[in-house]
Amino acid sequence: MCPDLRISFTLLFLCLAALHIFAGTGFAGPVKKNIFQLNPVEERVPLRPVSLSVQATERVPPSVKDVKAASGGRICSCQILNLGSSNYDHRLVVLLAEKTNDGSPSVFSVAKSRIQKEKKYLKQMFYDKVKVVAEMQETGSCISMFYRLRSADSHLQLYEILNADIADR
User: Fold this and answer.
1) Going by C-beta distance under 8 Å and a sequence separation of 6 or more, which residues neighbour residue 111?
2) Rounded to whole angstroms, how far apart are CA atoms 144 and 76?
3) What per-residue confidence (pLDDT) applies to 168?
């Protein structure tokens, strides 16, 4: 290493060390002053008491007649699953797929394949274990099927009602 370069680095180091040693706690840095001075409120006005009325509403499942009228040519495929991972263990989760009944014989298989794709996604992204507890298919809307199943077993949890009419990749 060149002696001139060594001397310049040594002087730089000594200058920085001296600045560090002699810089005390009273080192003045840039100070930002408040331009606006806010005056505190001298007198506080008491708040008037306000009464709120809350109406309790219950979610009542629709009647069977209403659901059948709204279903109009729909089919539903259903699987009840037990899902498990290292952190969670969900039992009796209902996965439904609904499709418009166009009269073709493959309508139920399309709805079932939509459920299979969703199960594959669940296993790939969230759960280690996906076990099918029960499986069923019928005509009508999926929400009526879920309410009928839920009336038989109150521990069922709805995961999602999938739309099998939409082409899924």
Assistant:
1) 75, 76, 77, 97, 98, 99, 137, 164
2) 10
3) 57
Tens-place pLDDT, residues 118-148: 999 999 999 999 999 999 999 999 999 999 9
Q: Which residues contact 165 (CB under 8 A, 6 or more apart)?
A: 98, 99, 100
Residue with tokens 């009542």: 60
Query: Per-residue DSSP letters for 37-89?
Result: -PPPPSSPPPPPP----------PPPPHHHHHHHHSSEEEEEEEEEEE-SS-E
Per-residue DSSP letter, 108: H
The span from the CA of 119 to the CA of 136, in Å, is 16
The predicted-structure confidence for 3-44, as pLDDT tens digits, reads as follows 788 888 888 888 777 776 666 555 555 555 555 454 554 444
